[in-house]
Specification:
The complex is a heterodimer of chains A (373) and B (107). Chain A is α+β, with helices and mostly antiparallel strands. In chain A, 42% of the residues lie in helices and 21% in strands. Classes of the chains: A alpha+beta (373), B mainly alpha (107).
Chain lengths: 373, 107
């Protein structure tokens, strides 16, 4: 006969007390959560009249960035993401995401449903922003790929977006035979820039399938990496925030190699030393635009001023674009864009530069080399 | 006479100005290789075409730094230092090294 365990009156009372304590704790937690939500909602409503709900909101994100009832952000990416024709819209959406991640604002969705096309450089910046977000939530992001455009899915898959974020890759994605990509690479300042630049140079040569003028590619990459360490993250206290991202692509038919490097640092316009009095004067009165500052950083003479700036490093970036038949170097930093085109037609060399200023900052520095091999 | 092959004796991937930029910086090359060799020998030959490439910050700190730190004058270096490259793609670095030396001003 089996024994029936009988609980004593004391044990029953202690169980009841524990149960009651649990119920009280749960009630308090729920109450605190509701209060937090209410405060957030009040702050949201109150602030709406006096200041923008979210500082990064603008006309481009007015309809695509919304808040849910529980005050979480929903960001819907626009139809086209590229820095060439849709800079303001692209940079605005990235700015919202960056600010939300930086300020620990809860984000519910980053929707890719409407996104029809994305350029490789925009894909790199997007990957870096989502990578930061993923790091903040300890890699808990996931992707609902059913609603994604096939072309966007294919490009991001080829560029290594899913590997970078530790997400499951889509099952059936047809690769584009013409373009080969070097998958997104993430690096930290303080790593051996030389060894890393050599490794990247070898990988880029592998995707191209032939030897390219190694010293200029190495020079450009190593100086970009060193510049990030020296200047870009001067104000970043946390070492894990000092990161950069790189990607490369090669189009076989056009024989076009494109290398893109992005950091989320202070930007060239902010770190450029003011070498002359009139520069300081212009800067004080906001008459010196970001693109002019990038152009100033490209000056050869900037190094001879003994000011430790980016001028020398940026000169190295030019060489890789310069030594090929046709080359282009584009630098986007904060609100400025600076571009230099090089081409050799017979014995005639052409060297054209252009500048542009935007309303929205790119949130760091994007360097893009594209050369015809 | 002493010969220094940057790739073989120092590093194939020399990068950066200061040791904080990486283990194979211009300052380290200058202090540990170039300066002792120039002090102990009448002629120093530096072979540059066995490295991956050079950034301006490395070249400026390693070679221009010799004048900036008042270790040698430009005239001394013209007598003592010889930069050699066989690969014509590295000729640009040869010219850059002498440019950094000639433009360096003693601190």
């Amino acid at each position: 006969m089996s024994k029936v365990r009988q609980s004593t009156p004391i044990s029953i009372a202690s169980k009841r007390r524990k149960k009651r304590a649990k119920q009280i704790a749960l009630f308090k937690r729920r109450q605190a959560k509701a209060l937090r939500g209410l405060r957030r909602q009040r702050g949201h409503r109150k602030g709406f009249k006096t200041r923008p709900v979210f500082p990064a909101f603008n006309v481009h994100t007015a309809s695509s960035v919304t808040r849910t009832a529980d005050c979480k952000l929903c960001i819907e990416l626009p139809r086209n993401l590229d820095f060439e024709d849709n800079y303001e819209s692209t940079a605005s959406h990235f700015a919202v995401l960056r600010k939300a991640v930086h300020e620990n604002a809860p984000i519910k969705h980053l929707r890719f449903d409407k996104l029809n096309s994305i350029s490789p450089s925009a894909a790199l910046v997007l990957a870096s922003e989502v990578d930061r977000w993923n790091q903040k939530v300890n890699g808990r992001l996931n992707a609902r790929l059913r609603t994604w455009n096939e072309e966007v899915k294919r490009l991001l898959c080829q560029m290594g977006y899913f590997e970078l974020l530790g997400l499951k890759k889509p099952d059936s994605v047809l690769a584009d035979g013409n373009t080969t990509f070097l998958r997104f690479r993430r690096g930290y300042t303080g790593q051996d820039g030389g060894a890393l630049a050599k490794e990247l140079r070898v990988e880029i040569e592998r995707i191209v399938g032939e030897s390219i003028q190694k010293q200029f590619l190495f020079e450009g990459l190593s100086e970009a990496i060193t510049n990030v360490g020296q200047h870009a993250y001067q104000n970043a206290t946390n070492m894990t925030l000092r990161q950069w991202w790189l990607s490369a692509s090669y189009q076989r038919k056009e024989r076009k190699l494109c290398v893109t490097f992005f950091d989320q640092g202070d930007g060239i316009p902010q770190t450029l030393p003011r070498a002359y009095f009139f520069e300081l004067f212009k800067d004080t009165f906001h008459a010196w635009t970001d693109s002019q500052k990038i152009a100033a950083a490209m000056e050869v003479g900037r190094s001879s001023t003994k000011k430790e700036g980016r001028g020398m490093g940026l000169q190295n970036l030019v060489e890789f674009a310069k030594v090929h038949k046709k080359g282009q170097l584009s630098i986007y930093s904060l609100r400025g864009m600076y571009r230099r085109n090089f081409s050799v037609d017979g014995f005639q060399q052409c060297n054209l530069s252009s500048q542009k200023n935007h309303f929205v900052s790119i949130g760091g520095t994007l360097i893009e080399w594209s050369v015809m091999l | 006479m002493k010969t220094i092959k940057i790739g073989a004796d120092f590093s194939e991937t020399p990068v950066g100005r200061f040791p904080s930029d990486g283990p194979f910086s211009g300052e380290r090359f200058r202090e540990e290789f170039l300066k002792p060799a120039l002090n102990e020998n009448n002629k120093v030959i530096v072979i540059i075409d066995d490295a991956e490439g050079y950034g301006s910050s490395f070249l400026n700190e390693a070679f221009g730094g010799l004048v900036q730190k008042r270790y040698f004058t430009v005239a001394d270096l013209k007598k003592k230092l010889e930069i050699v490259c066989v690969d014509k793609n590295y000729q640009i670095y040869h010219d850059l090294i002498w440019k950094h030396i000639n433009e360096a001003r003693p601190e």
